[in-house]
Structures are given as C-alpha cells and as structure tokens.
C-alpha cells in the first residue's frame, strides 16, 4: 500500500504542529521547513480544519494549531480522511473475482494496516532523541520527495 502525497503532507503538518503546541504556526513556515508548496499546504490545512484536526486563527498574528490534543488524533484517522479508498486491487471487472478469494485477503490486510495506524496518536510520535524542529532547522535545503520516491534520508 502506498499513501498519496496528500496524506504525506497532512501527516507532516500535524507532526509540525505537534512539535510546537504552545504557539501558532503559519503555512509559510511549514512550507519552508519541509520545502513543500504553500498552495499544496493550504489545501491540506483547509481539509484538516474542516475535520477539526487543526484550528485556524485569522488576522495579523493568526496561524494554525492542532484542533485537538495530539494524543487524541490517531494516524489512522488522518489516513482515512486523506485517502480516497483502500481497495488494493479493482476486482469489479475481473472474470475470476467470484472464485479467486483474493479480495477478502486484501481486505483483511487493509484492516490490519489501519488497525496499526489507529494504535498511534500524534502525541506518541515525537519520541525520538532528536527534536523534529531541530532536525528541520539543521537541513534547510531538504525538499519534499517527488511522487514515488519516499522520504529522502538525512545526510550523515
């Protein structure tokens, strides 16, 4: 299973906001930190806001912050919100679909995948030895991966 860049960016926004719960952040600073287009992030933040995962504050000193405590937002919830569907294959036009049984196996695998994501909240994620914001600040030229490349490794 591969998540879309939209899901990737949504997760990144929430990780960023989780790392700084005491203050408002701007789309511009998140865009700069990750090297992601502000236009893309605006769309992501809009959907996250409609779902109540982020709160936006308008005005000169406005910005965005988590809409709920990080410990109440599961990774599974975000993935379900940002992905269109979870059918790993399209069996609707397959001539052997009724006889092969793979559809139920793949559905079980998808349920297991989502069950694991549901066990983790954004409050659980920043537990590494390095602070996320320190890592982002140390590599200002990091850019978002192109579709299909996955996350770029940090330099040694």
Automatic annotation (TrEMBL):
<dbReference type="GO" id="GO:0003677">
    <property type="term" value="F:DNA binding"/>
</dbReference>
<dbReference type="InterPro" id="IPR000944">
    <property type="entry name" value="Tscrpt_reg_Rrf2"/>
</dbReference>
<keyword id="KW-0238">DNA-binding</keyword>
<dbReference type="InterPro" id="IPR036388">
    <property type="entry name" value="WH-like_DNA-bd_sf"/>
</dbReference>
<dbReference type="Pfam" id="PF02082">
    <property type="entry name" value="Rrf2"/>
</dbReference>
<protein>
    <submittedName>
        <fullName>Rrf2 family transcriptional regulator</fullName>
    </submittedName>
</protein>
<dbReference type="InterPro" id="IPR036390">
    <property type="entry name" value="WH_DNA-bd_sf"/>
</dbReference>
<dbReference type="InterPro" id="IPR030489">
    <property type="entry name" value="TR_Rrf2-type_CS"/>
</dbReference>
<dbReference type="GO" id="GO:0005829">
    <property type="term" value="C:cytosol"/>
</dbReference>
<dbReference type="GO" id="GO:0003700">
    <property type="term" value="F:DNA-binding transcription factor activity"/>
</dbReference>
């Amino acid at each position: 299973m591969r998540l879309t860049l939209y899901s990737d960016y949504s997760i990144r926004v929430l990780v960023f906001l989780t790392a700084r719960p005491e203050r408002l952040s701007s789309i511009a600073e998140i865009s700069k930190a990750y090297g992601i287009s502000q236009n893309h992030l605006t769309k992501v933040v809009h959907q996250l806001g409609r779902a109540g995962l982020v709160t936006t504050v308008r005005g000169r000193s406005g910005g965005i912050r988590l809409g709920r405590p990080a410990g109440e937002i599961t990774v599974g919830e975000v993935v379900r919100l940002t992905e269109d569907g979870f059918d790993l294959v399209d069996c609707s036009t397959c001539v052997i679909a009724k006889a092969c049984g793979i559809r139920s196996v793949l559905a079980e695998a998808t349920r297991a995948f989502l069950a694991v994501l549901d066990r983790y909240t954004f409050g659980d994620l920043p537990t590494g030895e390095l602070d996320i914001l320190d890592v982002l600040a140390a590599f200002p030229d990091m850019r978002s991966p192109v579709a299909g490349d996955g996350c770029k490794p940090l330099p040694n």
